[in-house]
Prior knowledge:
Elements: E1 6-11, H1 27-40, E2 49-54, E3 66-69, E4 73-75, H2 80-92
Parallel strand pairs: 1-2
Antiparallel strand pairs: 1-3, 3-4
The protein binds FE2/S2 (inorganic) cluster.
Amino acid sequence: MSYYQRHVFFCLNQRTNGEASCGDHDPQGAFDHCKSRVKQLGLAGKGGVRVNKAGCLDRCAGGPVAVVYPEAVWYSWVDQSDIDEIVERHLRDGEVVERLVLPESVGR
Ligand code: FES
């Protein structure tokens, strides 16, 4: 069994050269909100959920992005209610939130 049941990585990269980046969409706010909801729901820690910051994940055109392992499901979102849905349906209940899944074709 893996140490964490689910591991989430939020891209917090901010580009300053005019190219699209997740940093244009307040990823820190989404990260903070996710981390706090995971904690509130008692999901954090060994055998549960870990929420981590990441640098560029090379799917910048779809920003903001985060990826959930072990399912390797990529998400993008608009607001905190979307993050709540990812936390409750996927991180807690193991159900992919299809409407927020990043299309396979989205790259840098
Ligand atoms: S800037 Fe977020 S994936 Fe590249």
